[in-house]
Amino acid sequence: MAVLTTARAVMKDAATRKEVVKIQEHLRLLAKDFERFGKRMNGLSKHIRQAGAGMVTVLRDRGSTRQAGINSPRNARRGCGQRPVPAYP
Fold first, then answer.
1. Which among 6, 15, 48, 81 could bridge 70 via Cys, Cβ 3.0 to 4.6 Å?
2. Angle at the Cα of 42 from the Cα atoms of 37 and 48, rounded to 5 degrees
3. How deeply is 18 buried, as exposed, middle or buried, from its count of CB atoms within 10 A (0-12, 13-18, 19+)?
């Protein structure tokens, strides 16, 4: 009986080792996936920051252009810097 128990334990140990090798390979692949994911998230974060900075620049330029247009002498004649209301027939 002890020989059978030992034989079972040895076979079970061999099967367990095979499964451990498969699990380790999947963990290595998963680690590579997470590394790629991290790089992509860093790139996305960088692009979001750049886009945000670009939007601030665009909005700042639009604001200064609009302010310059309001303060121009041409608009001073219209009054309050507003566009004239179009007349409908």
1. 81
2. 125
3. exposed
